[in-house]
UniProtKB/TrEMBL annotation:
<keyword id="KW-0808">Transferase</keyword>
<keyword id="KW-0032">Aminotransferase</keyword>
<feature type="domain" description="GCVT N-terminal">
    <location>
        <begin position="13"/>
        <end position="260"/>
    </location>
</feature>
<dbReference type="InterPro" id="IPR006223">
    <property type="entry name" value="GcvT"/>
</dbReference>
<comment type="similarity">
    <text>Belongs to the GcvT family.</text>
</comment>
<protein>
    <recommendedName>
        <fullName>aminomethyltransferase</fullName>
        <ecNumber>2.1.2.10</ecNumber>
    </recommendedName>
</protein>
<dbReference type="InterPro" id="IPR029043">
    <property type="entry name" value="GcvT/YgfZ_C"/>
</dbReference>
<dbReference type="InterPro" id="IPR028896">
    <property type="entry name" value="GcvT/YgfZ/DmdA"/>
</dbReference>
<feature type="domain" description="Aminomethyltransferase C-terminal">
    <location>
        <begin position="294"/>
        <end position="375"/>
    </location>
</feature>
<dbReference type="Pfam" id="PF08669">
    <property type="entry name" value="GCV_T_C"/>
</dbReference>
<dbReference type="Pfam" id="PF01571">
    <property type="entry name" value="GCV_T"/>
</dbReference>
<dbReference type="InterPro" id="IPR027266">
    <property type="entry name" value="TrmE/GcvT-like"/>
</dbReference>
<dbReference type="GO" id="GO:0004047">
    <property type="term" value="F:aminomethyltransferase activity"/>
</dbReference>
<dbReference type="InterPro" id="IPR006222">
    <property type="entry name" value="GCVT_N"/>
</dbReference>
<dbReference type="InterPro" id="IPR013977">
    <property type="entry name" value="GcvT_C"/>
</dbReference>
Amino acid sequence: MTDEILQPSPLQALHKELNAQMGGYDGYELPAHYPSGMEVEHLHTRKQAGLFDISHLGQVRVRAKDGNMTAVAEALETLMPVDVMGLEKNRIRYALLTTDQGGIRDDLAISRQEGDFLLILNGKNREANADYIENALGDECRLVREFDRAMIALQGPAAAAVLSQILDASLITGMRYRDSFDLQHEGGIITVSRFGYTGMDGFDICLPANAAEAFARRLLEHPDVAPAGLEARNSLRLEAGLCLYGADIDKTTSPVEASLVGNIAVCRRPGGERAGGYPGAETIEGQLEHGIYRQRVGLKPEGDVLLAGGVELFSDEARTDRVGRITSGCFSPTLRCMISMGYVTPAHAAEGTRLFAVDAAGQPHTVVVTALPFVSQIGH
């Protein structure tokens, strides 16, 4: 069996210059951390601004062949329980592609740009999901893959001030959370969205691959900006209670189980003006009405122990009554303790409930159900 061949990022030379520790992420070789380490990068992002390479994400444009954006919105609504029709120009939403069984095929960001919709797919299975969307949209729509473009994230409280020194200052400082604009910049069109995956205020930026390094270098020239790897991005998203596809959500979990009901638009729910009409609607509507057998919760282990994905949870110390499973966990640099997320039965989902787990070494531990997010999201 041969090792996986990883695709280099457009910022590969810069990462090597900065002595990044590289790792494999959805088929790309990207920085896990830099010499400063995950904890320093995490805290710097919280206090100032971290620069992340997220070029593994898949950028897709969906356009109408005849220019009819309404037809595109209608087609996209057949794939996701989102109010795409009501999405205003230059606005972005978090969305879920659902399966026929009511599971989550992918979670993504969708924005309505000047003449099309931009979808940001997870790097995991981005080709397969782009194929799925393209085949499902019908003849009136055209899907354009832009997988050769770069994507970076500038996240943290200093992000707007820093970015306004490079781009149109009045535009950047005036952007609301979830605004998204296509801009003409050196090297071509870039898309700037006041959005992100860290729980912080900040921006995701899509840009041509050949312009990415120069743009990143200009950002790093600012004293408030430091490079940050995907380990810090993971710990930030977990503190913010955000899901990682393939760990906390997948085709076997529904939006209701994942506590993502807020991302099912009211107009797409039972009684709404465009209720249903997306894959798995009947199952999801049934869960909304009748309840679920498990739900996503925050968990804090008691003591200094990392309880990560796969660890089973029990209601009793003898571990005879299995009630759930942990899906992800890490050390929280902000809270200075270990944190986890997972699924438990509704009867054991109340904040403060004590549960029991066994770590990889076979040692028993107590965990406490905790409200999400662990750390309040900023700018949202």
